[in-house]
């Protein structure tokens, strides 16, 4: 799929990777970009600078009514980028309750699935779905335990959606960056990619037809290690305990 003249919908577009994705899509020649988030105020200036090409939409991907409204508005979309996500930085046993785990699953897995279900019918062989996962879909950092579980579920879901969309020839991409310099990876002590680096890799992956996109040295280390020495990787990441 070519970015030039694509019509894209980006969730979680108001900051970090989402904001960079919007900017990179516009710079690459996308015909139109729908930028959605729970609060789009930070995008007002960018929208004014791109009249007719950038439209702001209020969207909480855990709200079925809001998803339905965005689906009805965006009938021309042929590139869906599911970027919205949350990280509550909680362990499995140390968390005070299951509330944060429920919220992470509701957003990172079920919300992303709901968006795929909403837009899959209108994506034909020239379309694409991009699900922003994490390399932590493949292994757990205990200090972000329920995030890792939700991202793992999201990766399995992405593989299933890919299989169901294969007959249409629709590209379904799982993007698995390592740590990225955003609020999602706050306090992480290790190598981090910039949001711009991730956005650039996503667009390159779409145009290359890649089904999996890995970004950054940390992601490369984990991906290689999980193939060759998975217990070594598990024990190394087990050092990153909650708190």
TrEMBL record:
Pfam families: adh_short. It comes from the Bacteria. The keyword Oxidoreductase applies. InterPro entries: NAD(P)-bd_dom_sf, SDR_fam. Keywords: Oxidoreductase. Belongs to the short-chain dehydrogenases/reductases (SDR) family. This is SDR family oxidoreductase.
